[in-house]
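Q: My labmate handed me this sequence with no annotations at all. I'd like to see what the chain might look like in three dimensions before we decide whether it's worth expressing. Could you predict it?
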Amino acid sequence: MNSRSKTICMLIYGYYPAYSGGTENQCRLQSHELVRRGYRCCVLTARIGKSLPRHEMDSGSEIIRLTIVQPFVDTLLRIKNAIPQNASIVKPERNSGIKRQTDENPDTTYSRIVQWLNALFYLFGASLYLFRQRQAIDIIHTHVASWNAGFAGWIGNLLGIPVLCKASYLPAFHDYKHSAPFSEKWRLWRKRVRYIALTQEMADDIAGNGVPRD
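A: Here is what I predict for the chain of 214 residues:
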């Protein structure tokens, strides 16, 4: 296969225009640059809201949004968003009449359930898509050494597709910010992919966590 016709699949949970953080912006810029250089680039992401199209082109890169049981997820998110955020809970201190404020949020458990379900639907939809497109995809590229990188490593190994992750944090293998199914499995698999380290310090950190330097 000619190198100019290779297909890179960017695997990222949140993406433009629903998310626009540093990781998402870097993914988008990288996708545009790869297309400019003659590669085919598709971005496989979650369809966060039903107003977002399932498929669209963005400066030559293809955005594919997964829509598994999205109406159910939308309902959960609407309920979650209706719950007051950052509410403090006042609890009496044990064996005293003193009441002390805590930083506990009453919707923390519910938020984790919604995040877990969102991640589950995303993993299922991404697995189906990658399986169906396994002959057309040359590289799976993911961003941040989190659960998404672990999933990419597992599915890539299963389908025989190389996986590359661009580490974005130091330490690279930070704790997950969100709940995800099969978390411990992804913690292991995220150390079995190829990495791009942005600095020597990051490269040393990744290698120090068991990733071969080569």
